[in-house]
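Input record (one chain):
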Amino acid sequence: MPLTSRPREWALYQPLVGSSMLELGNKKTGDKAYKPFFESLGYRHVSVDWNGRDGALKLDLRKPIDLGTFDMVTNIGTTEHVSEQAPVWRNICEAMHVGSVLISTTPIEGHWWWHGEWYPTEQFYRALADLNGLEIERLYVEFDYPHKMIFARMIRREARPFTMPDGLMYRNRIRPRNAH
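The corresponding structure, as predicted from the sequence alone:
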């Protein structure tokens, strides 16, 4: 299982729901990709990443992606690398139907200055939920993960047109590596 070295992340996935999952990025722990693990559990698993590696569809998250809806949508350290935030969060919300779960982990500004361009705040997640018919099941900051990160688990309770929260992210002014 690729998540054994990330118990706090695995806890965020619990309980697993449904039978389909959209993963932003092609998440790996060491050399083990998440995709085959979730497929072994019976999930129809689709991963999307600009690089197209490890079975991911080679798609640009700054552009609309129309892959239908999924029971679970995961963003484990992907959105901070996308230069335009509204399109990527629109893609996330539009991939969710009522009852879908969003699992998201993002770095906190000031703790990952070398990694990524955008840092959502806890207030961003609260506004995202309020504006887009999501209910926060869990939202917390981990201070020792090894760097500060925000962990969020939300469920879609109501279908609404996407609305992007304004001004609730920090932008990395240093050119991070791996930004797209």
